[in-house]
Amino acid sequence: MQNSGNNNTLNINMLSNFSRIFMQKLMVMQALVGIFLYVNSLMIFTFLKKEVFREDTRYILFAQTLFVDSAIMVLTDVMLILSIYQSRIQMISCIFLCIVVTTLTTCTPLTLVAMCLERYVAICMPLRHASISTSSRIRFFGFFIIWSISSITSVFTFLAYISVVRPGALFSYVVCSIEVMFEKEWHSQARAIILLIFFLMMIVIILFTYIKMMIAARAASSEKKKSTSKGLRTVLLHAVQMLLCMVQLLTPYIELPFWKVNIMVFNNVRYSNLIMFIIVPRCLSPLIYGLRDEKFFAVLRHYAVCGLIGFSQHYINKIELN
Known about the structure:
Structural class: mainly alpha
Number of domains: 1
CATH architecture: Up-down Bundle
CATH topology: Rhopdopsin 7-helix transmembrane proteins
CATH class: Mainly Alpha
Mean pLDDT: 77
Strand order of the largest sheet: 1-2
Radius of gyration: 23 Å
Number of strands: 2
Strand content: under 5%
Number of helices: 11
């Protein structure tokens, strides 16, 4: 009897420790999400305030990454909280969440590829860059392609799930996760193949743009070498960011074995993946364009401190004229 009482006490202490650790991790996550959303909101505000940014394809693509990344962060955070507390929601709502998150997650690396292509046109085809980057028709067509391709994985996952699931299962309550939609083994395998094809296509495009820009950098005059080198570094950063974003799409396959065995280990693995493959790559976007771009950073700094450091409106107007 005494041993039984000791075991119960030990189990209670272990559960208490796990709960405390999860609460600490949850608080850290909320702090990171809050900082991330604040920075993104400030940059979105900066983008919306200046017409010169709203008319430039490069900044429009950047703004799209900010909007998409912010939405991903909020939705993923909600799903993490539901998972930690084992809160169940209706399967239909879970399917909707998973479809939206998957579409947005695929959209980010595709947008990064588009940004690399924009830099390629700017450096390797400078005479055509102005007409291409300011054309509303080309811009609309580009965004249509990005969002159409982004929806392929989520549409496939949805149709594959609907084709095999029992009708009554749609009204059941589950702890929401993309794993609940992998009813059959071939679902996850086919999804992985689609993601692999996307990844290879994007890698090929980025390598093509990088090699072409390297050739252009060697042939460029001394005046243009600085901007060309900066463009190369931007493409390289986008490649790293895209790689991390694509790894995020593969995290369900890393988490799936733990989900079937131990929910606590699963939550730990998911938490680590959130930090490494959601927060970290999405912090690179503000770094690449918000801080490295002199024009954008100048206006951002003005709004960040409410114009209190003597950054005059005259300079902002000068940016608009340029």
